[in-house]
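User: Please predict the structure of the protein below. I'd like the answer in structure-token form so I can feed it into my own downstream comparison script.

Assistant: Understood. Taking the following sequence of 128 residues as input:
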Amino acid sequence: MTNTNSAPSINRWDRVGIILSTTCIIHCLLTPIAIIAIPTLANLGASEELVHLLFAIFAIPVAAISLWHGYRQHGGRQPIFYAISGISLLWIAMELHEPHWMESIVTGIGGILIITAHLLNHRLKRHC
């Protein structure tokens, strides 16, 4: 049995996770277009790696907090599976420097899995 006063803060963590993962996907989709449109952005490769690292650094604690609270409330393991898979793909993508399209695809799939984890976690919590 959980305290009903904590429910809004738990839902907030799922929202933060969804927003963070969506931002990651948008970034991955728009970066290649921006590099094609503005060739000087192609020289920013080092800062691109930093952006990926920052996304991963924020995604892990947000997912951990949100999914742990959700698991304690609903007991479902499926959101944790999706999140671990998605975060693993984010880390793998950071090691894929070439070809860039492969890195973008792996990162995008990882982001979609993390969004799925948060949405599923949110839905399971609502049905408790």
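That's the full token string. The CA atoms of residues 65 and 97 lie 30 Å apart.
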